[in-house]
Amino acid sequence: MMPPSRRNGKRRVRKQNVKRCYCEGHCPDNQHNGTCEIRSGGVCFTSVEAVYDDVQDRDVPFYTYGCFSDDERGLMQCKGHLVPHEQSKSIQCCNDKDMCNLGLKPTYPERPTPEAPSFGSPDSLPFIILLTTITFSLTLVLLIVAVVFVKNRKKEVQRKFGLYTKNYLAEKYPKMEVHGPLTSLIEQSSGSGSGLPILVQRTISKQIQMTHSIGKGRYGEVWLAKWRGTKVAVKVFFTTEEQSWFRETEIYQTVLMRHDNILGFIAADINGTAGWTQMLLITDYHENGSLYDYLQDHTLDSNSLHLMSYTIASGLSHLHTEIFGTKGKPAIAHRDIKSKNILVKRNGECCIADFGLAVKFLSDTKEIDVPPNVRSGTRRYMAPELLDKSIDMNNFGAHKMADMYAFALVLWEMSRRCVTGDKFKDADDYAVPYYDCVPSDPSFEDMQQVVCVKKIRPQIPRKWDSEDILQTLSKVMQECWHSNPAVRLTALRVKKTLSKLDTDTSIKIM
């Protein structure tokens, strides 16, 4: 048994090596707050970390007190910040006296508190909501405007050209059955003076049976077709010539437009799907074709030349003349008169066609709808004032006088093919105006040099003096192709002059 003195001495050594620490949140065996003991190598510690307080809406310090025994590597953990930690945490340690950790006040590096974004800041929630709302609203408004514009545009086109609405057909036109020959349908609708009702036009266009192509021009291709056994001509416009189709359809459906010497209009329609569009213009069919084609294969005698010249002048006079009244007709300028745009009827008369460049003149508003391009029509037939750009595009009379210049060149083409004696060979070969001065496809500059600078006009043979009709037409030509538009004859004046000629042909004075 150990002596008491030694037992007491050992007990005193043990007490000197044991120290007490305050513990809170880190007590041994999960004990409540109190004290814990450390021995040699152990330490007391105080740690602090940032804990978010919902009430104060900020981080607040949270302290933990306890003991690290030697086997917990306490000294290793007491070197600065504890890592890794999701939150900032600092620790201080001591072992110099009992409860030494109560005097420790470690500090933690505070996390930067992000400033609440201002209202105008891109990160501000109200700003984001406002921006999203504005963007959505603008998009919606633009979409609505686009839809309204498209609908109004469609209605405007329909109103302007009298096309393709369902309800207004019944209101605008009386009920009209599509039966019988075309001549009967046209007679039934003659009261309006502007052609067949639109519903009838659409019905006819759906029943057309295409036969074969008979020609191709600048604006489209012409087909021979049939409707209930009646031959008709169908002009199929190129997709790039939508404006020409609109213009020609509008002109043909002008009130009181129908005339014996204007190509008979039957119907207009647009067929198509999302992938393609077909614009159709259906007119009377004339098997002799254009005057250009006819003159190459036929010679004329004085009577046929007289009849053709008179009927062309008559059709042009009807175009140029304004008819006043409740259902009046505006004056119209063709702006592309040439032999290819004049058709030869079976009875020898002629009729004017192709109104893709035509313009109307409304005397009450003094307005004409002329496109901005000064160069109009076919270069070979352009009047001097068009070639040198001196024409006043806002003067409707100037467009009529340009028509008369081109008409004079057509008279010259026909006169060359007229037999001046008993022998058939006396007729000259067909030729286009200025055939001996410019290339087959003359440029604008070619025509300007010949017509404006050199002031050349087609040659008039002396043998034309031997025939009354040729002699009269020679004078008409020279007056109509004069450089000064004011000197040129009007279509009405030419018509009256030709009506006074004494020929064997019976001409109906209109």
From TrEMBL:
<dbReference type="GO" id="GO:0071363">
    <property type="term" value="P:cellular response to growth factor stimulus"/>
</dbReference>
<keyword id="KW-0732">Signal</keyword>
<feature type="domain" description="Protein kinase">
    <location>
        <begin position="208"/>
        <end position="501"/>
    </location>
</feature>
<dbReference type="InterPro" id="IPR045860">
    <property type="entry name" value="Snake_toxin-like_sf"/>
</dbReference>
<keyword id="KW-0460">Magnesium</keyword>
<keyword id="KW-0723">Serine/threonine-protein kinase</keyword>
<dbReference type="Pfam" id="PF01064">
    <property type="entry name" value="Activin_recp"/>
</dbReference>
<dbReference type="GO" id="GO:0043235">
    <property type="term" value="C:receptor complex"/>
</dbReference>
<dbReference type="InterPro" id="IPR017441">
    <property type="entry name" value="Protein_kinase_ATP_BS"/>
</dbReference>
<feature type="domain" description="GS">
    <location>
        <begin position="167"/>
        <end position="207"/>
    </location>
</feature>
<keyword id="KW-0479">Metal-binding</keyword>
<keyword id="KW-0675">Receptor</keyword>
<dbReference type="InterPro" id="IPR001245">
    <property type="entry name" value="Ser-Thr/Tyr_kinase_cat_dom"/>
</dbReference>
<keyword id="KW-0547">Nucleotide-binding</keyword>
<keyword id="KW-0472">Membrane</keyword>
<keyword id="KW-1133">Transmembrane helix</keyword>
<comment type="similarity">
    <text>Belongs to the protein kinase superfamily. TKL Ser/Thr protein kinase family. TGFB receptor subfamily.</text>
</comment>
<dbReference type="Pfam" id="PF08515">
    <property type="entry name" value="TGF_beta_GS"/>
</dbReference>
<dbReference type="GO" id="GO:0006950">
    <property type="term" value="P:response to stress"/>
</dbReference>
<keyword id="KW-0418">Kinase</keyword>
<dbReference type="GO" id="GO:0046872">
    <property type="term" value="F:metal ion binding"/>
</dbReference>
<dbReference type="InterPro" id="IPR000472">
    <property type="entry name" value="Activin_recp"/>
</dbReference>
<keyword id="KW-0067">ATP-binding</keyword>
<keyword id="KW-0812">Transmembrane</keyword>
<dbReference type="Pfam" id="PF07714">
    <property type="entry name" value="PK_Tyr_Ser-Thr"/>
</dbReference>
<feature type="transmembrane region" description="Helical">
    <location>
        <begin position="127"/>
        <end position="150"/>
    </location>
</feature>
<dbReference type="InterPro" id="IPR011009">
    <property type="entry name" value="Kinase-like_dom_sf"/>
</dbReference>
<dbReference type="InterPro" id="IPR000719">
    <property type="entry name" value="Prot_kinase_dom"/>
</dbReference>
<feature type="binding site">
    <location>
        <position position="235"/>
    </location>
    <ligand>
        <name>ATP</name>
    </ligand>
</feature>
<keyword id="KW-0808">Transferase</keyword>
<dbReference type="InterPro" id="IPR003605">
    <property type="entry name" value="GS_dom"/>
</dbReference>
<dbReference type="InterPro" id="IPR008271">
    <property type="entry name" value="Ser/Thr_kinase_AS"/>
</dbReference>
<dbReference type="InterPro" id="IPR000333">
    <property type="entry name" value="TGFB_receptor"/>
</dbReference>
<dbReference type="GO" id="GO:0004675">
    <property type="term" value="F:transmembrane receptor protein serine/threonine kinase activity"/>
</dbReference>
<dbReference type="GO" id="GO:0005886">
    <property type="term" value="C:plasma membrane"/>
</dbReference>
<protein>
    <recommendedName>
        <fullName>receptor protein serine/threonine kinase</fullName>
        <ecNumber>2.7.11.30</ecNumber>
    </recommendedName>
</protein>
<dbReference type="GO" id="GO:0005524">
    <property type="term" value="F:ATP binding"/>
</dbReference>
